[in-house]
Design goal:
about 575 residues, mainly alpha, Growth Hormone, Chain: A, 2 strands
């Protein structure tokens, strides 16, 4: 159990106060107004909406503003996965046979038609070249986004979310332009130019940055009691894109008769997302909170005078971004550090396995059960749609029954106002995470022992219930830290996700390649082991642990009385950050 919190003067609170605090934190994260600061609210209370109360509805931030454009963004992301793979296969195949003909003028081959069935490309040499090229693209995008995404997350705490969300999608625009050039003018732009597109995508954070910034935006404008559900909506958009994107792309390519057309659509989707986020989406962080975050950074760097600045440390050591997961100093505890690390590991396993196992799962099902494109597409789409249903329908009901209704009942019984407060993950978060990881683990055992395609399909539906875990774990992370550090901590989580995007496919693809002829189920043994580690982390997690920043009440100024020193801090911004923004 975490030790008692200390006051600013170093004295422990009285037992009576501690008992009251513990009793209220055990009830819910919507707690009674026990003590107050200058604004009549607890220091750790959620009051992000106060800065926007005077604005009309169309200028107030809300997760519902983001769902539409984010759905378009994920449809573009999911829609080009298969077409881009096929395009790369055709371009690599064409280059391979052209090189063969150059070496042997007597060599002839059937022409390669982009987007058509090209059976002459189904040879080991071409498949090997495609695999190596895809690995190169993943390494470039994953490596660069692992460095950039945490930086963007940290910057967004000080400069707002929407500008950086737009920036994260700019790389996708440039990447699609390069892809279109390679597809339309293959004689001028060799397929290896796509590596440049991967660089553009990676240096703006890629999908990883877009995801963590969207979750940061959602955390800003959603109270803790509803945060997991709102982040669940964001994840439901992702799974909808993964389920419907390939299907819609397939029909669109068939309708237009050209593979390149879908990349124009993806380019348009990225452009729409950028314009909407930059000029329509209300900013979720007020100027006051942005200035507070900047001042805190300046004060922190001033305390470390003589050392390299945070930007230099991040540049020289990208792993420095993980320091936020092991905070020290006033307001922190060993229990908080254990919780943050456990949540980060669980999130990396959940999201990393989702991104890494998909291709191998399709290869395994086609190898074991003789599935074709139709059966495989039906399985993947069903898996994604079950996740969407769980996140959009089941999760809100669970949240209402076990969190919202009990809080409302306590409010009626006590007659005292209830306020939203960041008090760490509550008991509901912990048990949902344990249930989700248990379902993932059971589904893995189902995959492992299924020798019948119907049992295999049913096992996949069991793992779909694990979709609750992805939203819950990321919401729980944001509840552990002050509002001014949400972007930074999600950036660190995004860093680990980006690394898993690099390591995961290599690990699972390599293991499958080595064992497919002897024990093809070995990948599920590895996957079950990873989910076992994640489930262990979920049982290590303790509820109601929160990072309380000492002196925060002096920093938090009421919206109507901005501190003059905050305005002065704007003039002290470092030149490199101004250049980035």
């Amino acid at each position: 159990m975490a030790g008692p919190k200390r006051r600013g003067d170093g004295r422990s609170p009285s037992p009576t106060v501690r008992e009251i605090d513990d009793r209220n934190s055990d009830l819910t994260e919507t707690s009674q107004l026990l003590g107050s600061n200058g604004f009549g609210a607890r220091k750790d209370s959620w009051d992000n909406d106060l800065d926007f109360q005077h604005l009309p509805w169309w200028r107030r931030p809300s997760v519902f503003w983001l769902l539409g454009p984010y759905a378009v963004f994920t449809l573009a992301f999911g829609g080009i996965i298969v077409p881009k793979l096929n395009l790369i296969l055709d371009l690599v195949c064409k280059q391979y046979f052209a090189d063969e003909q150059l070496a042997d003028p007597q060599f002839t081959y059937k022409p390669i038609v982009l987007g058509s069935d090209n059976p002459q490309c189904n040879i080991p040499a071409v498949q090997r070249n495609v695999a190596e090229f895809m690995l190169t693209l993943n390494l470039v995008i994953g490596g660069l986004s692992a460095i950039v995404a945490p930086k963007l997350g940290h910057l967004s705490d000080r400069y707002g979310r929407r500008k950086l969300m737009a920036l994260a999608s700019c790389g996708g625009v440039l990447s699609e332009i390069v892809t279109i050039l390679c597809a339309k003018y293959p004689q001028t732009f060799n397929y290896r130019w796509m590596i440049l597109g991967a660089v553009f995508d990676g240096i703006t954070g890629s999908f990883t940055a877009g995801s963590i910034l969207s979750q940061s935006y959602t955390s800003d404008c959603t109270p803790p009691s509803k945060r997991a559900v709102s982040i669940g909506y964001i994840h439901a958009c992702l799974f909808t894109g993964l389920a419907l994107g390939p299907l819609m792309a397939g029909y669109f390519v068939k309708w237009t008769g050209t593979l390149i057309s879908i990349f124009y659509v993806a380019l348009g989707c990225h452009t729409f997302f950028i314009l909407f986020v930059r000029f329509v989406l209300p900013e979720s962080l007020s100027k006051r909170r942005q200035l507070l975050a900047r001042e805190k950074l300046l004060r922190s760097e001033a305390e470390q005078a003589g050392n390299e600045g945070s930007s230099s440390r991040l540049l020289h050591n990208p792993f420095a971004t993980l320091k936020i997961l092991w905070p020290t100093g006033p307001g922190t505890s060993s229990r908080l550090r254990i919780n943050l690390v456990a949540l980060a590991v669980a999130d990396t396993i959940i999201m990393g396995s989702m991104m890494a196992v998909g291709n191998v799962l399709m290869l395994y099902s086609e190898y074991m059960f003789g599935w074709g494109n139709f059966e495989t597409s039906r399985f993947i789409s069903s898996l994604s749609m079950i996740r969407v249903f769980v996140l959009m329908a089941i999760f809100p009901i669970i949240n209402y029954v076990f969190r919202i209704r009990p809080a409302a009942r306590r409010r009626r019984e006590s007659g005292a106002p209830l306020i939203e407060a960041n008090s760490g993950a509550d008991n509901l978060d912990v048990w949902i995470l344990r249930f989700a990881l248990t379902s993932d683990l059971l589904g893995c055992f189902g995959y492992l022992f299924s020798r019948n395609q119907h049992l295999f399909f049913a096992s996949g539906m069991v793992t779909a219930l694990g979709g609750l875990g992805s939203a819950t774990v990321q919401a729980a992370v944001t509840k552990h830290v002050p509002a001014s550090r949400i972007g930074q901590v999600l950036g660190a989580v995004g860093f680990m996700q980006a690394l898993s995007r690099v390591v995961g496919p290599v690990l699972f693809n390599g293991l499958y390649a080595m064992t497919v002829g002897v024990f093809p189920q070995a990948i599920f043994v590895l996957l079950a082991g990873l989910f076992g580690i994640g489930l262990t982390c979920a049982f290590i997690l303790k509820p109601h642990i929160h990072w309380e920043e000492i002196g925060e009440e002096q920093d938090e100024q009421p919206p109507s009385q901005p501190s003059r020193r905050l305005d002065d801090s704007a003039a002290l911004l470092t030149a490199n950050e101004e250049a980035i923004i």
